[in-house]
Specification:
Layout (H helix, E strand, L loop, with lengths): L62 E3 L2 E3 L9 H6 L5 H9 L5 H10 L2 E2 L4 H5 L7 E2 L5 E6 L8 H13 L4 E4 L6 H11 L4 E3 L2 H4 L10 H14 L3 E4 L21 H13 L4 H4 L1 H11 L2 E4 L14 H19 L3 E6 L8 H11 L5 E4 L11 H15 L3 E3 L12 H22 L6 H11 L3 H7 L3 H11 L16 H8 L23 H8 L6 H14 L17 H16 L2
Parallel strand pairs: 5-6, 5-12, 6-7, 7-8, 8-9, 9-10, 10-11, 11-12
Antiparallel strand pairs: 1-2, 3-4
Helix pairs in contact: 2-3, 5-6, 8-11, 13-14, 14-15, 16-17, 17-18, 18-20, 18-21, 20-21
The structure holds iron/sulfur cluster.
The site of iron/sulfur cluster (SF4) has 8 residues, from helix 19.
Length: 584
């Protein structure tokens, strides 16, 4: 037999699995601690990574000595960045390393010191239930879910419920974007209930009950302090949109689509002055540092349609965000940068790598991006396609988009659909980037699928109940094939038989006799009859009854069911039996 001669690109980065599998990731070698940490190979023409890091922007009076730095006498570290610069591993860094088993606490510290990793953990929120997490290129890709009451819909209780629901479906952080109802009460309730970091866009609260033109620096600082004291972990601050950018917007198809950006543009035009978030940036840094809030420097000029992507307004603002990043680092603050928006697929890599260059590796937190504008109602899909590319090429956190994007306030099922779409994007990118261990879950599910072990298949599925309901629509659990191809055409079943694979059948199994399991239970029938209409809680309540009906909880199974077969056993059997069969 001729050996394949195609280049084994994955050989440079041989495994995404802790145990080692082949082929590996096609991305660059991991390079943790360098500018190419978990990065995609550059398409020709992409901007080079910056040669600088947060180490190049130490505060006045600090000196780099060897691996770490020394601060002026009497200085007391407050932020994770300051502790990292001094060489200290904090409890929060340890916790991040526990949650990212491919990183040591020291690597987490070093990435924080370089400005490539942030730990959004307000000191007030740490006293409640916050479980610290990290956002950066060295960590797994994170997802954020937005929620918040609007003036015409939702309530505090509903938003707290949505918070728990979003976390149930994998949100790593949640932004409270409330613009209606009792904003303070809603924010407090969300922070107190949240184990995940909470972000806000503070300008929303600043204009409740007043016109945008009445905003001034003192009002801005008062509101920031109030939210800091409540325990908010990261602030979106639209300080990068300045007066010189405004003329660049006039030729756009859809102008400014960021709420914060449009309000501040209006303020600048009415006052004939520069953005107060920009002019007060030093004083904002002081509050942010005091509580160790993380900056999420907002993209007030993000494109709102494909036609406006990568234009001078967007990239001009990104340049200002880069200057503010350097400034915030000099004041000891943690920083991430927000990014677009609506971007054609071919421009995504450039956008990610330009940010990497200009902002010296500060984590990029992107909304989508949507790769087409013509599928309202399905923007969780149009955007998670862009989000996958963004995460592969440089984003560290993905802000979800739900099916309600551009159309209305997301309800619970929209939150679930948005979270799942973005978990898919983040996980797909992590596997592609070769983050160690990220593919273990996929490999486990593939083993269960190969063994036709439906229970294990459902258990490993991200949304077990939906996988079970869709399978059971056509056939009950525990047949050794499914309804997609049927018994005679089930390639997995046939493959197992021809190679005398470890079938792992239950005792009493009789080959050639298909065991008919009971008909669908009333609960299963209800799930299927109302697919797409059933409330998410109802789906899960019915699915748990279904599991009881088929005996999953007590480990019962039909005799045609295949058990999970450990890969070593399978390899041994294949070697012994398959090789024997082939040798005359
Ligand atoms: S019937 Fe087809 S889809 Fe179903 S398990 Fe077999 S090969 Fe896979």
């Amino acid at each position: 037999m001729t050996e394949p001669t195609l280049p084994l690109r994955g050989a440079a980065n041989p495994s995404t699995s802790r145990a080692g599998t082949s082929p590996g990731s096609f991305s660059n070698p991991a390079d943790i601690g360098g500018p190419l940490t978990f990065s995609s190979p550059d398409t020709p023409g992409m901007p080079e990574p910056s040669a600088k890091t947060a180490w190049d922007f130490l505060p006045d009076g600090w000196r780099r000595e060897g691996k770490f730095a020394t601060a002026p006498a009497g200085f007391e570290a407050v932020t994770q960045l300051e502790f990292a610069r001094l060489g200290v591993v904090t409890p929060e860094m340890r916790r991040v390393a526990e949650r990212e088993p491919h990183l040591t606490p020291e690597q987490v510290r070093d990435e924080v010191a370089a400005g490539r990793l942030v730990i959004p953990a307000n000191k007030v929120h740490l006293k409640y239930a916050l479980d610290p997490m990290g956002i950066g290129r060295g960590t797994r890709t994170k997802i954020n879910a937005n929620m918040g009451a609007s003036p015409i819909s939702s309530s505090t209780d509903e938003e707290v419920e949505k918070l728990q629901w979003a976390v149930r479906w994998g949100a790593d952080t949640v932004m409270d974007l409330s613009t209606g109802g009792d904003l303070d009460a809603c924010r407090m309730a969300i922070v107190r209930a949240a184990r995940v970091p909470i972000g806000t866009v503070p300008i929303y609260s600043m204009i409740i009950g007043r016109k945008i033109e009445d905003l001034d620096e003192e009002l801005i600082l008062d509101e920031l302090r109030r939210q800091a004291e409540q325990g908010v972990d990261y602030f979106t601050i639209h300080a990068g949109l300045i007066r010189t950018h405004l003329p660049l917007v006039k030729d756009r198809l859809i102008g400014i689509v960021s709420r914060g950006g449009s309000l501040l543009a209006k303020w600048m035009l009415q006052h004939g002055k520069d953005n107060p978030m920009y002019t007060a940036f030093d004083r904002i840094c002081d509050i942010v540092r005091e509580f160790d809030i993380t900056f999420s420097l907002g993209d007030g000029l993000r494109p709102g349609g494909l036609a406006d992507a990568s234009d001078r307004a967007q990239l001009g603002e990104l340049q200002t965000l880069a200057e503010l990043t350097e400034h915030a680092w000099r004041r000891g603050c943690q920083v991430m940068i927000e990014g677009p928006g609506h971007v054609p697929f071919d421009q995504i890599e450039y956008n990610m790598k330009l940010q990497r260059t200009l902002c010296h590796g500060a984590p990029f937190y992107v909304l989508g991006p949507l790769v087409t504008d013509v599928f309202p109602g399905y923007d969780h899909i149009t955007s998670c396609i862009g989000a996958t590319a963004a995460a592969y090429h440089g984003a560290a956190m993905l802000c979800y988009v739900t099916p309600k994007e551009h159309l209305g306030l997301p309800k619970k099922d929209d939150v679930k659909q948005g979270c799942i779409a973005y978990k898919i994007a983040a996980h797909a990118a992590d596997v592609a980037l070769g983050i160690p261990g990220s593919r273990d879950w996929d490999d486990e599910l593939t083993r269960a699928r190969a063994a036709l072990n439906w229970e294990r298949h459902f258990d490993l599925a991200f949304d077990s109940d939906t996988a079970r309901a869709l399978h059971d629509e056509d056939l009950d659990v525990d047949t050794d094939f499914c309804a997609m191809c049927g018994h005679d055409w089930c390639a997995v079943r046939i493959s197992k038989e021809i190679v005398e694979f470890a079938s792992g059948k239950a005792e009493g199994f009789i080959r050639d006799r298909v065991v008919k399991t009971p008909a669908l239970s009333p609960e299963q029938q209800e799930i299927l009859a109302q697919r797409g209409v059933l409330a998410p809680e109802e789906l899960h309540r019915l699915a748990s009854k279904t599991k009881q009906a088929v005996g999953v909880e007590i480990g019962a199974k039909a005799s045609c069911h295949s058990d999970y077969v450990a890969s070593d056993d399978a390899r041994k059997l294949q070697h012994e039996k398959l090789v024997t069969l082939r040798v005359p």
